[in-house]
Amino acid sequence: MAEVEAAATGASESPEVEVAEASAAEGGAAKAPHKLQRQWAFWFDIQSKPKPGAAWGSSLRKAYTFDTVEDFWCMYDQIFRPSKLTVNADFHLFKAGVEPKWEDPECANGGKWTVPCSRKANLETMWLETLMALIGEQFDESDEICGIVASVRQRGDKLALWTRTASNEAVQVNIGKKWKEIVDYNDKMVYSFHDDARRDKPSRGGRYTV
Questions:
Q1: What is the pLDDT of residues 117-157, one digit of tens each?
Q2: Region Disordered: which residues (predicted)?
């Protein structure tokens, strides 16, 4: 457990084993855990100065995979709050088996809806509301969703909801509208293709908006 908390302030070792043991010890007395429809995984990424020759994503680490409501709350309450992150760090919640990278087969042809967060309180609230919507399968197009990223940056924090099939405008717009409702966001929300970012040719204003 302590290793993940250290990661939120700059460590880079994966804490998966220690976290799993701590969670099992704390939840040993629990009865009939509430199973989720699928497994999810928390990841973290501390983007310090990269080592020469280091590949993008080399600092990305999987922290914990879970499939019960109880394990989710244990991990969220103790560790995975954006307020615990330092600048230039990310928390991710993705479906188990999907890595939060453009290169992952589930993400390769996808994109993301992005919401800027001007205040830490807004980031924390919208992050939690999105997490609960994802593990609670509140999206009609839940199979199209890969995961969510919370990013803390000096110039402004943001959330990004990653999806699988960027070219399917109708599905992406439906997801965007639903997410906008979930996080109670009133400004324009923008969708961008991962492929545009890979080619370093971002589309001004995004491909889709809601």
A1: 978 779 999 999 999 999 999 999 999 999 999 999 988 99
A2: 1-31
